[in-house]
Design a protein that fits this description.
This protein is α/β, with parallel strands linked by helices. It contains 15 helices and 16 strands. The chain folds into two domains: 217 residues, 3-Layer(aba) Sandwich (Rossmann fold), CATH 3.40.50; 170 residues, Nucleotidyltransferase, domain 5 (2-Layer Sandwich), CATH 3.30.420. The strands form three sheets. The protein has an eight-stranded mixed beta sheet with strand order 3-4-5-2-6-7-1-8, with helices on both faces. Helix 13 crosses helix 15. It starts with a helix and ends in a 12-residue tail after the last helix.
Length: 424
């Protein structure tokens, strides 16, 4: 390949460098033209390249690029949150249609219209004016940041009625996800093809300061998972915890802590399909507020493996002890821990009530603002916000949650042992 590239004249090398099929990531390229799909949903984080994906798709359809379409699409709709968004992002922006290489369309802002020299036309619409889409008809539509639209449902309906030209009229949605009903329906539709991308996937085109300051600050948080990783983050309506509450009390660093424990919720078996071993560390400050420090939960680990993981966390945090549930195989658990490190104090605890009843008082502590997560603990937080009266929606065992409940119950709902001060 290097020898072949070296043999090319400079103008072809420059053309290859700007060729979208050569430069695009796989998530930025649409499904094959012959594949039976109606909507292509590009769901990604901020700066992940969604706008460039949409602009290149529209340009390819308008010019009849055979890699994207069997022939030019004569009429295309461009829909954004407002007309200013269509103009400033989708058309005139640094990744918009006018910034692309190749055949540049003529832009008439007063007519809200792009014209290519082959007669193809793209018209700009605002999602604030759904009725403006009544009447016009199209062969394709690009809907940008749909999850932010004020009148999302009615605008989307009008777009569907207008997609009636050509053999296979299709739509592209580029958006950072939000848990709105319309987006959930679109993603669940069997005629939708989904591409996902993260901000980090486009790092080479982003300012290093942005990556350091923004990505470094928000990585792993609910906002970061939505805005950077493009995840659709939802709360279960009947869950004991909410993400908003967790976010409101999250901190970057813990203060001096009076006592730290590592709680272990051991599985009854280490065979395939068995529950995970919940391992969560938490501490309590002189103020009486608790700080969740780490989640070291292991899936399908042997007793020796999870005991080693729990003890490693205990030593790393200079903790005061281990709290271990002994209902299912717990006596074996304490024996294994003592075998690995007999000097570590182990406090056995036994469940006498169901998981929901044990978890409820701990969730109240969160609601009172008395529990803080130190940094991001995504897997643990997903369990908390999916735990209702009938357990997790998946039916799986809430092992991380159980370990958290044991740790905070021991620290905040029982009389603690004599404290000693330390700084993490």
């Amino acid at each position: 390949m290097p020898a072949f590239l070296a043999s090319l004249p400079p103008h072809l090398i420059r053309a290859l460098a700007h060729d979208w099929l050569h430069a695009a990531r796989s998530d930025q390229l649409p499904p094959c033209p012959g594949q039976p799909w109606t909507t292509w949903a590009v769901v990604g984080g901020r700066g992940s390249g969604k706008t460039r994906t949409g602009a290149e798709w529209v340009r390819a359809l308008a010019t009849g690029d055979p890699a994207f379409t069997q022939g030019p699409v004569g009429r295309i709709a461009l829909i954004g949150e407002t007309f200013a968004d269509v103009r400033d992002v989708m058309i005139e922006g640094p990744s918009g249609l006018l910034a692309l290489n190749g055949r540049r369309p003529h832009w008439s802002p007063s007519r809200r219209r792009l014209d290519w020299d082959n007669g193809a036309v793209a018209l700009a619409f605002s999602a604030e004016e759904p009725d403006s889409l009544r009447g016009p008809q199209f062969g394709a539509a690009w809907s940008d940041e749909l999850a932010k639209w004020r009148y999302a449902e009615s605008t989307w309906d009008m777009i569907q009625f207008g997609l009636r030209l050509g053999q296979t009229p299709r739509g592209l949605v580029t958006t950072t996800p939000r848990p709105i009903p319309l987006l959930r329906r679109i993603l669940a539709d069997p005629t939708t093809v989904i591409s996902r991308s993260r901000t980090a996937d486009n790092a080479q085109n982003l300012a290093p300061s942005f990556l350091d300051a923004v990505v470094g600050r928000y990585a792993g948080t609910r906002l970061g998972r939505q805005e950077l990783d493009g995840e659709l983050i939802e709360d279960r309506a009947d869950a004991l915890w909410t993400r908003d509450r967790i976010e409101a009390t999250r901190v970057r660093d813990a203060p001096e802590l009076r006592r730290i424990v590592v709680a272990v919720d051991p599985p009854a078996s280490s065979k395939a399909g068995a529950d995970a071993c919940g391992i969560v560390a938490a501490g309590i400050a002189a103020s009486g507020e608790a700080y969740v420090l780490a989640d070291a939960t292991l899936a399908r680990a042997s007793p020796q493996a999870w005991a080693s993981a729990a003890l490693a966390l205990y030593h790393r945090l200079s903790a005061d002890g281990l709290v271990v549930e002994v209902n299912q195989g717990g006596e074996m658990a304490t024996a294994v821990l003592n075998e690995v490190d007999a000097a570590v104090p182990v406090t056995p605890v036994r469940a006498t009530r169901g998981k929901y009843l044990r978890a409820e008082p701990v969730s109240v502590l969160y609601a009172q603002g008395r529990v803080h997560h130190v940094g991001a603990l995504p897997a643990l937080e997903d369990e908390l916000c999916d735990f209702g009266a009938d357990g997790l929606s998946s039916g799986a065992s809430p092992d991380r949650l159980d370990a958290l409940v044991w740790a905070l119950t021991h620290l905040m709902l029982r009389v603690p042992a004599e404290p000693r001060i330390r700084r993490l």
